[in-house]
UniProtKB/TrEMBL annotation:
Keyword check for Membrane: yes
Keyword Ribonucleoprotein: no
Taxonomic source organism: Rubrobacter marinus
Pfam families: DUF4352 (PF11611)
Chain segments annotated as coiled-coil in the UniProt record: none
Domain DUF4352: 74-196
InterPro entries reported in the protein's UniProt record: DUF4352, Immunoprotect_excell_Ig-like
PROSITE patterns: PROKAR_LIPOPROTEIN
Disordered: annotated span: 43-74
Protein name: DUF4352 domain-containing protein
Length: 204
């Protein structure tokens, strides 16, 4: 028994239904592919942005300015940074720190003595955050908070308020990497919102 025209009509509907499903399947694959490409592009853009920011930060180098742009004065010379003045009076390397009240401490240290003068019209707060040490490999060292017991109390500058026109004697100690050399001291203007700095060549 032949189905005739009805059979062909049913067959066409089946074929059309299968074709529609196939088209929908292709469209789904295309949509997924487009989403994947867009997602990858967005990720690459974000990664590029992050890498760009990191490169911009690296270009600045350690210590606020690239090494070739730092104009360093020698130890003993006055250095004016904004409304304050610094004079490094002594700088030395040490393998041991001693104190009347502390056990000797072994390590690699750079000890810096200085005079700080407030030339502004208002009191400023002097602390170790205003100083940093940069070596010949452009590595930056911060003051070692665990060595404050080896500093003369008269030279301890922790949150020390300095009034206008007053000079304060200070000392800081840096723990540095073994073999580090060619040190430059970076000195700020005590304003936490400023990036103005001056530099002193320690000579070793």
């Amino acid at each position: 028994m032949s189905l005739g025209g009805k059979g062909r009509l049913v067959g066409r509907k089946i074929l059309m239904g299968c074709g529609g499903l196939a088209i929908l399947g292709v469209l789904g694959i295309v949509a997924v592919g487009c989403l994947a490409v867009l997602s990858s592009s967005g990720s690459d853009t974000a990664d590029s942005s992050i890498e760009g920011n990191e490169s911009a930060q690296d270009d600045g180098g350690s210590g606020g300015q690239p090494a070739e742009e730092r104009q360093a004065v020698p130890v003993g010379e006055n250095l004016t940074v904004a409304d304050v003045a610094w004079q490094v009076t002594n700088a030395r390397q040490a393998n041991q720190l001693t104190s009347e009240f502390q056990e000797p401490k072994q390590g690699n240290f750079v000890v810096v003595d200085f005079a700080f003068t407030n030339n502004g019209s208002e009191a400023v707060t002097l602390d170790s955050e205003s100083l940093a040490l940069i070596d010949g490999e452009d590595r930056t060292f911060e003051t070692d908070n665990e060595t404050f017991g080896y500093i003369d109390p008269a030279k301890d500058i922790f949150l020390d308020q300095v009034n206008p026109g007053v000079t304060q004697q200070g000392e800081v100690i840096f723990t540095v990497a073994p073999g580090a050399s060619d040190f430059t001291l970076e000195l700020g203007d005590t304003d936490m919102f400023s990036d103005e700095n001056g530099y002193v060549d320690l000579g070793f």
